[in-house]
Amino acid sequence: MAARVAELEAERELTLRLAQTDSLTGLPNRGAFTTALCARLDAARAAGRSAALFVIDLDRFKHLNDTLGHHAGDLVLAEMGERLRAEAHDGEIVARLGGDEFALIADGEEVAARARLLLASLCQPLTIYGRVVSPGASVGVAVYPVDAADASDLQRFADMALYRVKTRGGRRWSVFDAELRAENERRQTLEAELRRAIPAGEIEPWFQPVIESMTGRITGVEVLARWNHPEQGLLTPAAFVPIAEELGLIGQIDEAVFETACGLAAPWVAEGLIEAISCNVSPRDLLDPGFSRKLIHRLARTDLPATALTVEITETFLLQDLGLARRHIERLAAKGVRIALDDFGTGYSNVRALMNLPIQTVKLDRSLIEAVGRDARVSKLVASLLHAARALGVSIVAEGVEEEAQALFLRSAGCERMQGYLFARPMPAAAMEAHLRASATAGEAPLVAAKPLLRRRG
Ligand code: C2E
Ligand code: CA
Ligand code: CA
């Protein structure tokens, strides 16, 4: 009996250990790490000591995985785990938080020197399948109790420091400091304001016309969110979309903007002022398996026909989960909703995805259009993208057209539609409606900028 109990006990312990261990590196996993961090801070508090949290992220790991294969990637992760273990002093904890992210919970002394040692060790070349690989890493640090009083702040602050190094190119370390503290406070204020602003209806849709290159006629509008901030005035998405995504609030914003925009634009479509509207959705929204069903449901509550709606998605999402992307896209396409691939030319520009998914439109990113006419290679690239799109039966919208020379080039290269300050800036609904009516009564393109284009064609 006693033997059986001991056996069960041993089994239970093993199960528990396995549940807390990352099988690839043998290190504690994220769950175990969180428990350990809390315990460590409790101990430090009781002893009146400090503790440092180092978060470590490998640089360009995805590239390594893609070029050398997943097995090689696994070997690199295991080796990095070993190196970190070797850098840890007695009683310190190394964990794998997931993917290519690790953590070290250490004493709070000589943090800078420790960070330097960690980096030096992680950046040593290693040989895999006879090939020399030079891994790189970035390190973010926050210290208890000077930076943060609890585990969750400590983690967030170390992550902020890490993120800052990453955006500056990696292969460096950074400690949470006054600059990041100020940023943290700004973000917390913004968070509180955003939570208030969404239900208060302060975030509203603006519209920017999309024109047909040959005629200058407005064929549709893109919906762009604006925040009517009570003190700061009008804010563009750059000021609130990234943080809303991080806080998981972007879904609520997109829903509110979407429904209002559909309601406002439905009469424009019904009157024949435009053919369709385009709405942006965040890659975050698309990770929700219920996204397409909810969107179709919300659309049905407005008067906008499904065939007059284009949903703009980015490649980031396609790459994150192609299976889920396909389900959403096919569900929307079955209802007649069109799909546009946004910001094309900034990422992998996966032309294969275009062939395999019902995507009708590609939006050429402003960064490409900017260089058109200035950089001969970019002009060539754009011309060949247009050529490939035609072959695939995909239509192209050029974004961010600001200069007439760009418009002329794009039109002669066969780009069907354009959008940009040259034609019109984004504007509120009332202005958009007036603009559409003026265009319609003028009979032809009333846009100042579009006219010279038309004249030049004779
Ligand atoms: P995007 O989808 O690429 O939208 C085009 C952006 O380019 C818009 O910026 C627009 O105002 C700007 N733009 C248009 N023509 C020109 C031009 O000729 N020159 C220049 N320099 N810029 C031009 P905006 O409105 O600031 O939006 C930025 C991004 O925020 C959008 O990029 C889109 O990704 C995102 N976004 C906008 N509204 C929403 C929304 O309701 N939901 C979500 N999830 N994202 C949104
Ligand atoms: Ca867009
Ligand atoms: Ca875009």
The averaged pLDDT comes out at 91
Major β-sheet strand ordering: 8-9-11-12-13-14-15-16
Question: CATH homologous superfamily of the largest domain - what is it?
Answer: EAL domain
Q: State the end-to-end CA separation.
A: 99 Å
How many independent structural domains?
A: 2
- CATH names the topology of the largest domain as TIM Barrel
Strand content: 15-25%
Which consecutive residue ranges, at least 5 long each, have pLDDT under 50? 445-458
Instruction: Tell me how many strands there are.
Output: 17
Which ligands does the model contain, each kind named once?
ligand C2E, calcium ion
Number of helices: 19
**Proportion of helical residues:** 40-55%
Largest sheet properties: 8 strands, mixed, barrel
Structural class: alpha/beta
* Cα-based radius of gyration, to the nearest Å: 27 Å
What is the CATH C level class of the largest domain, in words?
Answer: Alpha Beta
Task: Walk me through this protein's architecture.
The protein has 458 residues and is an alpha/beta fold. It has two domains: 16-176, Reverse transcriptase/Diguanylate cyclase domain (Alpha-Beta Plaits, 2-Layer Sandwich); 202-442, TIM Barrel, CATH 3.20.20.450. Helices cover 51% and strands 21% of the residues. The chain has helices at 2-20, 30-47, 61-68, 70-87, 111-122, 151-167, 178-197, 237-246, 250-270, 283-286, 291-300, 315-320, 322-334, 351-356, 366-371, 376-392, 404-412, 429-442, 450-456; strands spanning 51-59, 93-98, 101-107, 126-128, 131-133, 136-144, 173-175, 203-212, 218-229, 233-235, 276-280, 309-314, 338-344, 361-364, 395-398, 417-418, 427-428. The strands form three sheets. The chain has an eight-stranded mixed beta barrel, surrounded by five helices. Helix 3 crosses helix 4. The N and C termini lie far apart (99 Å).
